[in-house]
Amino acid sequence: MGTRGYLFGKVLRAFLTLLFVLVFNFVLFRVMPGDPASLLLRGTSAYNPQNVAAEKERLGLNKPLPVQFIKYMGSTLRLDFGDSFKYQGLRASTVISQRVWPTVLLVGTSTIASILIGLLIGIWSGWRRGTMIDYGSLGFTLFVYAMPEFWLGMLVLMAFAGGVGPFPAIFPTGGYETVGADLTGFAHAFDVLNHMVMPFFVLTVAYLGEFAIIMRNSLIDVMADDFVMTARAKGVRENQVLWRHVVPNALLPTWTLTMLSLGFVFGGAITVEYVFSWPGLGFLTVDAIESKDFAVLQALFLIFSAAVIISNLIADVTYMYLDPRVRAA
Amino acid sequence: MSVLSVRDLTVTYHSQAGPVPAVRGVDLSVDKGEVLGLAGESGCGKSTIVNAVLRLVPPKTKVTGEILLNGEDVMTMKPGRLRAVRWSGMSVIFQGAMHALNPVQRIGNQIAETITIHSQADEKGARVRSGALLEQVGLPPRRLRDYPHELSGGQKQRVMIAMALACNPDIVIADEPTTALDVMVQAQVLQLLKELQRELGLAMLFITHDLSVLVEVCDRLAIMYAGKIVEEGPSVQVFQNPRHPYTSALSGAFPQIGDRRFRMAPSGLPGDPPFPGNVPGGCSFHPRCPLAFDECPTIDPELYPAGIDRRAACLLVRGSERVEAAP
Amino acid sequence: MRPEPMAAPPGGPVPPPPDEDLDTVRLTPRQIAYARRKKAFVRMAKTYRKSAMGMWGLGILIFVVLVALFAPVISDKNTMVPTCTCTGAPFQPPNGEFWFGTDNLGRSVYTMTVWGARISLTVGLAATLISMIIGALLGIVAGYYGGWLEKLLMGVTDWFLVLPWLALAIVLAAVLGRSLAIIIFVIGITSWPGTARIVRAQTLSVKTRPYVERSRALGASNWHLISRHILPNVGPLIFANTILTVAIAILSEATLSFLGLGDPLSVSWGTMLEFANNAGAATTGKWWWLLPPGLAIVIVVLAFTMCGFALDEILNPKLRER
């Protein structure tokens, strides 16, 4: 099959997955109990049969399903997700595009940090299996895994922004930048970073445990392989046995498993952004839940899914460079 | 002058169920240019000896005895000296080259790694030498760029041989080098090993469970059972005229095509070799021995002289030659 | 390289002794099977007892279940109702009357934490039951029947695994509404893929074992094979996986409740944190409100996870061979 076949297969799979997500999205909001119009108006003072009927007409819900589906696919491809309910007068896509950058900044950097630190801890832990270091990091990982990341966020917020007991209040209590300060250039960047420290810390710590465990287990598996014995018999120093022989092999399954965990990282972003009032897509999601802004919710679901699908695709493609066996297969 | 001399080697693994004595007092010696064969069924401790000799046993394993490589005691070497001696003094051709090579590294790099570690050669020099080594084992130098999965079983084994020779070791230990291969390929690899050993005057410790292979390649043979040597001597003599019942069974277990005796009575040995933690008292072979008598379960035989330059650990041998006990 | 393949691997399992004390002549096959399974269970329990992690986890679990069961005994439910006169002043730090202090409505944090155990455990177990049934069913069917059915089911499973879980759960809950049953349903139908994969892999390995083939050659029906051979061998693995899934389910419930999708009428640890967040407890340093529910979640999730890991080590064939 070769490189091209492998790539083509992976891209095709990603594409199909995305397609199914689109269909699922459509089905969910149209076929679920209660139509979107009622859902929108339920619980508000405007909820009466005439308004619901008018809303249905406006949303085109009376047309046959296949017609609706085609319309839906068409507008999705044009990135038109309808009007935002909460932010009257704005398109859903506009609302979303305003919040993309903060999320990319926060989640992007923390994911990279989390993976790097997690993998390193996993390597260290697996190499020194059974020692205090191993048990220590396992214990720490287990503890953090059991913690809801938003709880960790609230604790950090309380300690370092609110200040309680011996903890100093050195960080802002939320948001992206100091409101009303109108800073530019370096001062602005620094201000944003200042606001980002706590959510960044929380997101990084919350997930590095999982990456550490994945890497640790993979490393332990590889350490039992025959070629490690060969390397030692050849007189290779322990250090190099680890980094030149064991790690490159241990990275292979770790890479794929790590990418599979990304879905959870994005989920964590939702709650953490909420706790720290970080104005990104996660915060917007919670906002949209409260205000029943279904257009925005639908679009966000699509974006989150697409993000995971694309990162999996990137992982699959880069895997090719890690494992020569895949290139030849 | 012996290149490798092992005296009273004992290796006891540590396991959850208690200590497991895999090797229980083994003496071996290989002289310069000599090929010593070590034979026995799976589980007798052969591969453990290989690991022990290079100090590659798992942590918490107890190893006692003397292992002299060119007169130097391996057990007391400092880590730096040990690493230097590994491969350049004593190298190993591992069994199952399927997994003995790093799957994500090109074989050229794997061979070159040994050269750059043990000599002053630079990258280019190492590469040139690697190519020469490949040619020596019958592979074209361009295969240096291949990954292990691109080679067949026999080719991988040749690479292992080339790698073992890379640093001009004093002794090469071949641990079941042909076991995982097809019969036809086995013959080729064996032939290669024989030629190389003769050309380079290598000392070799050849480990296998296949006696017929050993007779072809080795000068002397040692037979192992349940962690101990039970017979040793010149290979042809041991094979044709075994003094220990186990050796007879092993050599009889290989049917000659066309020999009618084997059609009527295939001579497999009943039972299984004992688990290392579960060795029978007295002579460890007595439960499966067709010649066992009443003293066998009570006395554990030592290696008694059994002819010129031959020894066997069987009470029958002790009975026939009343000479002083084995050294 | 490992030592000789036939030697007992150092640190590995010792093969179990043959069942010499079973009277194979006079007992029926079913009785023999039952007796053997009971022995295997006892053996497993003995091994489990050796695991420190497993025993601690089990101990904590028992403690939590007891707290949940005896909630009315160890706390006064009325101190959870805002309108009761027995509640205290809002935002009281821990004191003699209210051991964990009070929240913004004067409710006793201690009482809410104790009663919250019931909700969290119930949701966790119920959702896991759903997830386990779906996952096991799909996994066995996919593994056993193979072919296009397997491809289809695994395709769906993989697709589910790719989706970001929280986004999916949020969307479902937002559309379906807020109630305990819906939360259980949502968590249940979003966590079955993990179980399905593991079950399928194990089914595949059991399917190819000699005794299954022999049974089929003797003319056993599919149902017989599945219920008598596959299920008992896949069962333990499902069980270990289930324990781990409960941990995830509890975390999921906490997250969904925290985001405002939980049942507005019940108090779980997640909703406690939701209230706390909405009342700005973090920035105003109301640590007594934040710590108990969060710690409770951590402890319970840890307990389930530890038990699950301990069981996994015993029952998972892959881990055992190492």
Task: Describe this protein's structure.
The complex is a heterotrimer of chains A (329), B (327) and C (322). Helix content of chain A is 77%, strand content 0%. Chain A has helices at residues 2-31, 36-41, 49-58, 65-77, 92-127, 132-146, 149-163, 185-223, 226-233, 238-275, 281-290, 294-322, 324-328. Chain B has 327 residues and is an alpha/beta fold. Chain B has a single domain, classed as P-loop containing nucleotide triphosphate hydrolases (Rossmann fold, 3-Layer(aba) Sandwich), CATH 3.40.50.300. Chain B has helices at 46-53, 79-88, 97-100, 107-118, 123-136, 153-165, 183-200, 211-217, 235-240, 245-252, 260-264, 315-320; strands spanning 2-15, 18-31, 35-39, 62-69, 72-73, 90-93, 171-175, 203-208, 220-225, 228-234, 304-305, 311-312. Chain B has an eight-stranded mixed sheet with strand order 6-7-8-3-9-10-12-11, sandwiched between helices. Chain B starts with a strand and ends in a 7-residue tail after the last helix. Residues 322-327 of chain B have low confidence and may be disordered. Chain C has 322 residues and is mostly helical. Chain C is 70% helix and 0% strand. Chain C has helices spanning 29-50, 52-69, 71-74, 109-145, 147-162, 165-176, 180-190, 192-207, 210-217, 222-258, 269-278, 287-315, 317-321. Chains in contact: A-B, A-C, B-C.
Write the layout of secondary structure elements.
The complex is a heterotrimer of chains A (329), B (327) and C (322).
Chain A: H1 2-31, H2 36-41, H3 49-58, H4 65-77, H5 92-127, H6 132-146, H7 149-163, H8 185-223, H9 226-233, H10 238-275, H11 281-290, H12 294-322, H13 324-328
Chain B: E1 2-15, E2 18-31, E3 35-39, H1 46-53, E4 62-69, E5 72-73, H2 79-88, E6 90-93, H3 97-100, H4 107-118, H5 123-136, H6 153-165, E7 171-175, H7 183-200, E8 203-208, H8 211-217, E9 220-225, E10 228-234, H9 235-240, H10 245-252, H11 260-264, E11 304-305, E12 311-312, H12 315-320
Parallel strand pairs in B: 3-8, 3-9, 6-7, 7-8
Antiparallel strand pairs in B: 1-2, 1-4, 4-5, 9-10, 10-12, 11-12
Helix pairs in contact in B: 4-5, 5-6, 6-7
Chain C: H1 29-50, H2 52-69, H3 71-74, H4 109-145, H5 147-162, H6 165-176, H7 180-190, H8 192-207, H9 210-217, H10 222-258, H11 269-278, H12 287-315, H13 317-321
Helix pairs in contact in C: 2-4, 2-12, 4-5, 4-7, 4-8, 4-10, 4-12, 5-8, 6-7, 7-10, 8-10, 10-11, 10-12, 11-12
